Amino acid sequence: MLNLENPTPNPSPFRGGVPKAGRGLALLACLAIVGGISARTKLVTMPQREYTRIDLKNPNQTIVEEERTVNLQAGTNQVEYAFSGVAVDINSIQFRPIKTPGTVRVINVNYPPGENALFWEVFSDKAGPGVFRISYLIQNLHRTTAYEAVIGKDEKTLDLKAHTMVQNGSGEHFASAEISSVIGKPYNGGLLQGESKKIQAFSAGDVKFTKKFFYDYSHSSEVALIYEVKNDKASGLPETMLPNGKARVYQEDSQGSEAFLGEDWTQETGAGQKLELKLGQAKEVKVTRTIVKKKEEVVKLPIKNYHQTVRYQIENFKEGSVPLTVVEHPGGEWVVDDIEVKEESGERDEIREKSYSTDVKQERIDLDNLKLHIQVPANGREKKKLNVYVKLILKNRW
Description:
Elements: E1 26-29, E2 41-42, E3 51-55, E4 62-72, E5 75-82, E6 94-99, E7 104-110, E8 117-124, E9 128-138, E10 141-151, E11 157-168, E12 174-180, E13 187-191, E14 196-208, E15 210-216, E16 224-230, E17 246-252, E18 258-265, E19 274-281, E20 285-300, E21 303-316, E22 322-328, E23 333-345, E24 352-355, E25 360-366, E26 369-376, E27 385-397
Parallel strand pairs: 2-5, 3-12, 10-17, 15-22
Antiparallel strand pairs: 1-5, 3-4, 4-9, 5-8, 6-9, 7-8, 10-11, 11-14, 12-13, 15-16, 16-19, 17-18, 20-21, 21-27, 22-26, 23-24, 23-27, 25-26
């Protein structure tokens, strides 16, 4: 038996014939197996991989494809595939000819008990070189995605880079491989056991974005800052599915250096969808939520409706208006009876309210979630507040 990764003769395909852990997958050929392979079985010599492709598109399963040229003899050829120390799914291994000297058939495959190997019988009616493709699922070869965004000083555009991080803990050494991920062009290079690589997927400059503010009282009493980028060519992005990953955001300052703003885990973002980068607390906008009114309405005892008024008191300390998204969680069966917007001014005993016209859009997400999209004027520096009154009817409560 010949170990093709380390071509030292070995007398037995079963005892000592499997490569040691860390030597990787090996394609081997032998003249006979213990128990009696027919004398017609031919010994063939297989070189090392000519081409390897690692597909990382699926986050849970990694597919490896490799090609080797086999010098087939006329008749039956015996091939052993050994994978000691390599995390291969044995049921996923496929072996198929893609270029042959004549008619070639894979007759059968055998799985010796207690061995990290399998055996193919391959028949060829003519002698000559044949190209075979072997594919399999391999474990412990992982990829993650990392994003880096740099906000311009004018806060109108940003530069966005994406990297694919690959960690090889599979037990296999890939001296040369084409590595394909979800985004970016394939990378050609080696990936050894225990090695990690950082591969740039894409780099986009002058990407348009929208700065937004988000408030959900069930998560935090603070307003979150969000940078929103549409995943399309008009914004400067590749318009392909962007996988979830960690994003770090920086901002240029007046001296040309970069200040760290924060980091966030992004969600998968398809073409045409919006990529959101949430960066923690926003200091420029403040929201206070208060239930200011609650009234029972008996429907039929013990069933009641509750008329509830929630006030969102909003202060915007920026120089211009800002878009704010507020989330309310009514739960159960409910309707929005009315929404009123008033401007509050004065302090203590001199507090005054007057009607205020601004754009408030309501979006019913599901039974538990209502979103309000509000364009908030600059009012905090003038010691004014925007009060948004949301009148809800919570129906059929026990």
